[in-house]
Amino acid sequence: MVYGYMIAFMTVKVAEKNDFGALAAISLASMSEPWSEADFVAASENPFAIVLKAEDENGPAGYAVGYFAADEAELPSIAVKASCRGRGIGSRLLSELSDAVREKGASKLFLEVRESNEAALALYQKNGFITAGVRKRFYRDPDEDAFVMMRLL
Ligand SMILES: CC(C)(COP(=O)(O)OP(=O)(O)OC[C@H]1O[C@@H](n2cnc3c(N)ncnc32)[C@H](O)[C@@H]1OP(=O)(O)O)[C@@H](O)C(=O)NCCC(=O)NCCS
User: Fold this and answer.
1) What does each of the 153 residues of the chain score in pLDDT, given as a tens digit?
2) What is d(CA 6, CA 15) in angstroms, rounded to the nearest whole number?
3) How big is the chain by its Cα radius of gyration, in Å?
C-alpha cells in the first residue's frame, strides 16, 4: 500500500566536531545572541557541558546546550532550523538535554528567555518549566527583560 505521507526520521545525539559549523549557522539564523563555531567547540571540550544535536534526513536540524555543576544545570542556548520548527524537535531536544544533565546529578534546570519570545515560552511551559524570576534588561538589540525559568528534573 502507498501512503500519502512520510514518517520523518529524526535522531538526537551528542554533537561532534564536524557538526559545529552547521549548528553555528542554525544559531546565527535563529538567535539575537548566536553561538559561534568556537563557542560550540569550547562547550564540547568543557567537562561540565553537553551539546546535543537533532538530525533529520537533511542533516542537522537543531541543537541544545547544557552546563551542569553540583545539583544545578543551565540551558544557555537552544534552536531549531526555521524549516524544521513545529515538528516536536525543540521538545525532544529539551527532554533529552534534561535527561542528560539529570544523569550528571542535576535536579534543577534553569534558563533565560526574552519575555517576547512566545514560541520559546510556550515550548518551556509545555515542558514543565515555571517562571522563577525576571532579569531586568538582560538582553540587548533590542533591550529586553528576561524571564528566568526553572524545571525540576
Ligand atoms: C523555540 C524553538 C526552539 C521551538 O522549537 P520547535 O521544534 O518548533 O518546537 P516544538 O515543535 O517542539 O514545539 C513545542 C511546543 O512549543 C510551542 N510552540 C512552538 N512554536 C511555537 C510558536 N511559533 N508559537 C507558539 N507556540 C509555539 C507549542 O506549544 C508547541 O507544542 P504543540 O506543537 O503541541 O502546540 C524554535 O522556535 C526556535 O528555534 N526559535 C528560535 C530560537 C529561540 O528562540 N530559542 C530559544 C531562546 S531562549
Assistant:
1) 444 455 568 999 999 999 999 999 999 999 999 999 999 999 999 999 999 999 999 999 999 999 999 999 999 999 999 999 999 999 999 999 999 999 999 999 999 999 999 999 999 999 999 999 999 999 988 899 999 999 999
2) 26
3) 16
Would the pTM count as exceeding 0.85?
yes
Could you give the domains of the chain?
10-80+87-152 (3.40.630.30)
CA distance 22 to 24: 5
Cα 44 to averaged position of ligand 1 atoms, centre (Å): 25
Ligand 1 atom at minimum distance from 124 CA: 16
Which atom of ligand 1 lies at the shortest distance from residue 62's CA? 39
